Amino acid sequence: MRQSMTLIPTLREVPADAEVKSHQLLLRAGFIRQTASGVYTYMPLAKRALDKIEKIIREEMEKAGAAEILMPTLQPAELWQESGRWDGYGAELMRMEDRHGREFALGPTHEEVITAIVKDELKSYKRLPLTLYQIQTKFRDEKRPRFGLLRGREFIMKDAYSFHANQESLDLVYDKIYEAYNNIFSRCGLDFRAVLADSGAIGGKDTQEFMVLSEIGEDTIAYSDSSPYAANIEMAEVKRTYERSTEPERSLTKIETPNQKTIEDISSFLEVKSEDCIKSLVFNVDGEFVLILVRGDHEINDIKVKNILQAESVELAEHADIEKLLGCSVGSIGPVQLPSEIKIYADLAIQSMVNAVCGANEEGYHFTGVQPERDFKVDQYADLRFIKEGDPSPDGNGTIHFARGIEVGHIFKLGTKYSDALEAKYLDENGKAQSIIMGCYGIGVSRTFSAIAEQYNDEHGLKWPKNIAPYQVHLIPINMKNEEQKDLAESLYQELLQQGYEVLMDDRIERPGVKFKDADLIGLPIRVTIGKKAADGILEVKLRNSSETFEIHKAELLATIAQLLKSGE
């Protein structure tokens, strides 16, 4: 492609609203342009890179036995109402009405549509298993779009769905897709981890996320320093023992603690350690108020609370509800002398506490000398806290460290959540109707593109891995008004194209400095410069990944490029 014939609107200044490196560079290098908040146009360079990511995805999905389809973006509300997600999905679901008043959603995902299709078309166990996928634009009304393509309202996604007669079949396909995802992200050149995860609004269990390691990642990964164990911090189990203190139990005593609201306030005011305090929070769990307890130096993990209580919704109680329920504010809540109708769920660490401090359910007062089970009863003990750095790894090997990650893929074992709701059944060997068992597998294509940009850059611009780069070679004649340079550039351009190489030739009438700055911004793997030595057939080759520069004769160009691309430079 001649650079004069495409659209690459580079910028010299960093856009004011671009917070992270990938967003800044994709804008500056002319890959994307914002159309509205969280909505972007993919310019020609971006489209070529996205096509390469999609090609890798298609190749690996085909190896895993999946067939590609394309479903509608516009989805009738009736399907979402059947699954129960029309009201439950939340404000992120973009809804609309047609001219007849019929309600639709712009699809954020396609579980309902694909289940309805399979329900109508697949009747016998003989057609199972089956895996179908698509690559398509999705829509979610993000409250706060940010980080460019990493959290937008319109994005490109690959979503796949598998259908099975039994759990063993699902497990087998799940493992194949897991392997395919590892291959996809490896071929994209990403530094990533597969981690245990929560299924969120999709539902199901046995789920893993694929996280690209990045300081700007919105998710925290807990990983072992001595084993492959990795999990989203929300799902990392805490497996440690807590030794009970041997100090004598003291009597329960109420003391005045004016204006002391937080654990830090109380521990400082009473001169006790935070781990000697009980943190008490009221949660609204599917419309019922419960009290959750953790040690003062720990944090309540609401995902674990949701899973332990098998709840649909877990939210912190409103201040007004707490005042009405207990007659105090959040800073004075505690498990002692609690109204009998409120159940208490406590983290395992609470069991070993002796002479603890907790709120007295009276404004400005706390109890000291609190003994669990003596002074209050717990309905259930469970692992309810977030894991901490330094905790033992749940697999028994090493200790836990934290890293930040960008989620680019997610795989789920859905079970019969959607097939039951939409009555998608098949006839087994005995002619009996059975619910189809399902799996679900997603990749954020535009997110992956942005994550690559986040990992591959320097102070001068982007540095695309060769598998994803929009073009392999950036051919730059310094002076297009010089006939020797122009003729040699044209000759080499045609020769490279004939050999099947992807070439971007900068045929613009621009100063050398502008061309070189743009080349560094765009970040193609190999730059070939035709300058003052054109008459002698001498070219300058620069590798974007290493900044290495060397001269070759024009007769060596094809062999040099072949070798550089083969070696992974």
Automatic annotation (TrEMBL):
Keywords: Aminoacyl-tRNA synthetase, ATP-binding, Cytoplasm, Ligase, Nucleotide-binding, Protein biosynthesis
Compartment annotation: Cytoplasm
SUPFAM superfamilies reported in the protein's UniProt record: Class II aaRS ABD-related, Class II aaRS and biotin synthetases, YbaK/ProRS associated domain
Catalysed reactions, as listed in the record: tRNA(Pro) + L-proline + ATP = L-prolyl-tRNA(Pro) + AMP + diphosphate
Enzyme Commission number(s) of this protein: 6.1.1.15
InterPro entries per UniProt: aa-tRNA-synt_IIb, aa-tRNA-synth_II, aa-tRNA-synth_II/BPL/LPL, Anticodon-bd, Anticodon-bd_dom_sf, Pro-tRNA-ligase_IIa, Pro-tRNA-synth_IIa_bac-type, Pro-tRNA-Synthase_IIa_type1
PANTHER family tied to this protein: MITOCHONDRIAL RIBOSOME PROTEIN L39/PROLYL-TRNA LIGASE FAMILY MEMBER, PROLINE--TRNA LIGASE
Protein name per UniProt: Proline--tRNA ligase
This protein's encoding gene: proS1
